[in-house]
């Protein structure tokens, strides 16, 4: 009898536990701007395949950091579960090892803002059932990707209605010694104006009229925490609505895997408030 009860207990646990049935696909996305293709990870929620095949979904673009790749988020976190939980499509494009997601005036072969902000979005909207509206698109990323997400969102306000940054390098002037950064930003002394104009901390006023739903967080032990605090303080002074958090942790996957859960919840809540839940075309 005890064995039977134990079996029923285990069965009840299995039936009550969430079943994660999201699909992960690796796609090759061409770039006309750079005359080559790059791989990207796309995570589709379970109801994308199992539900109404006419339903369309909001999209969250998630960028990797310096030295990373399109596979980082799925290799180091359980981000796929968030696609199922919040009924969103997650897209993780490749941003190069040290591109900073900008269109570099110093390297014509490094056009990653155009690639991620335009070409990847166009590909995803063409090949997947997305809600092709700025109000149903968000972009975020970690470290270099946090900088890139905010830079792209500011420069392409017609494309993204929400943006985030996780442990973001929001002031690249603090990263002058990072190998490869001068290749895309130029020499820090000779091209200081370019560095200054691209620093997110110096672009805070651009968020005033951007109408971007904004979420920023950083670990209290992270070497980028002070520049993130500075950005937060400037946004407060300007009266720019935004979500800001500091949590225990440093510049690590342990912190990022926890943070992404809050950011996806933030974006999904915004989608729902705007009425952009999965919908039938």
From TrEMBL:
Keyword Signal carried by entry: yes
UniProtKB keywords: Signal
Alphabetical list of SUPFAM superfamilies matching this protein: alpha/beta-Hydrolases
Signal peptide: 1-21
Keyword Signal: yes
InterPro entries linked to this entry: AB_hydrolase_fold, Esterase-like, Mycobacterial_A85_antigen
Protein name: S-formylglutathione hydrolase FrmB
Species whose genome carries this gene: Paraburkholderia hiiakae
């Amino acid at each position: 009898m005890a064995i039977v009860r134990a079996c029923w207990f285990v069965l009840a646990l299995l039936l009550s536990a969430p079943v994660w049935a999201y699909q992960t696909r690796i796609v090759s996305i061409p770039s006309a701007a750079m005359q080559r293709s790059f791989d990207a990870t796309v995570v589709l929620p379970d109801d994308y395949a199992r539900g109404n095949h006419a339903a369309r979904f909001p999209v969250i673009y998630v960028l990797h950091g310096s030295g990373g790749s399109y596979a980082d988020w799925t290799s180091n976190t359980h981000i796929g579960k968030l696609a199922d939980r919040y009924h969103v499509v997650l897209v993780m494009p490749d941003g190069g090892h040290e591109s900073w997601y900008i269109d570099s005036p110093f390297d014509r072969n490094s056009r990653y803002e155009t690639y991620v902000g335009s070409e990847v979005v166009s590909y995803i909207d063409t090949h997947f059932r997305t809600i092709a509206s700025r109000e149903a698109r968000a972009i975020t990323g970690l470290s270099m990707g946090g900088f890139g997400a905010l830079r792209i969102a500011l420069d392409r306000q017609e494309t993204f209605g929400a943006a985030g940054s996780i442990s973001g390098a929001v002031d690249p002037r603090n990263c002058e010694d990072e190998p490869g950064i001068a290749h895309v930003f130029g020499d820090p002394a000779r091209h200081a104006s370019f560095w200054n104009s691209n620093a997110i901390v110096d672009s805070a006023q651009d968020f005033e009229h951007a109408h971007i739903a904004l979420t920023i967080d950083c670990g209290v032990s992270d070497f980028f925490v002070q520049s993130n605090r500075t950005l937060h303080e400037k946004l407060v002074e300007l009266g720019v609505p935004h979500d800001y958090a500091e949590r225990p942790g440093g510049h690590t996957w342990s912190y990022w895997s926890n943070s992404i859960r809050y950011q996806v919840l933030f974006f999904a809540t915004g989608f729902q408030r705007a009425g952009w839940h999965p919908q039938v075309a």
